[in-house]
User: What shape does this take?
Amino acid sequence: MIEIDLIRHVKVVGKAGLYGATDVEPMLIENARLLKCLIAQQSTVKTYQSIISSPLIRCQKLAREFSKASQLPLSIDYELQEMNFGDFDGVAFDDMYYEAKANDTVSFDAKTQPLHWSTLEGFFNAPAKVILPNAESLFDFNERIISAWESLLERQVSLLASDSITNIDTSSEMSAGNSSDTKSKKRKRILVIAHGGVIRMILAHILKLDWKSPAWHQQLQIANGSLSRIKINQSIQPLPNHQSCAHMHEQIHAQFHQQVTTIAMPLLEDF
Assistant: This one.
């Protein structure tokens, strides 16, 4: 079994706004509290074996500090970045004009044209239909995240399959009294540190919910520093070397069942 914890980064430094591709620092105090929480958990039986992080500093800072403190391998997945909001990305809500004036031009170039709440509200109300100026579309964002998620699962399932085969070979040399050690190695826990939008897309994919719905993005709160947990149960079978890449991809994904067991559980309340 593979257990993957999706943790959203802590709050960031700066005014409230859409921070997608903009690289903004996390709040140090909250980051330290979340790090303390993860280190405390790592000392229990529920330990992680590896860490995967978005490249943006608000995720990567925590990932690198936890990796160093716990001596865990860390990989950076550039496809797990938050959605790019184009001209609105990184702009504080307070710096936007509430509505467009009658004599305003149609141009949405942030360098020459003020950004208006009316444009942003249109996106919030129909995120799959409205593309913000110079932004990533919701369809492209979804495709990027789900592709990254499936690649992540494929790598982890393949690694677990390899470990299981190795353990089977090793267990033949072990006494019956130590067989529980081999069994415990078949359970794997991964920590993924990412963004609210990324986590929503992954959850919608697994739960087979409409990721295009405005309600999904507006009503499901993925709080900063919260944890969503996914369990993958799979039937590990060796994959013949002569299979095509496409066939191997299909077979690997047919071997496991994804289950969401926790959504946005706060981690910082007790810290």
Notes: Confidence is low (pLDDT under 50) at residues 102-112, 179-184. Helices lie at 28-42, 57-70, 117-125, 138-171, 179-184, 196-207, 214-219, 245-254.
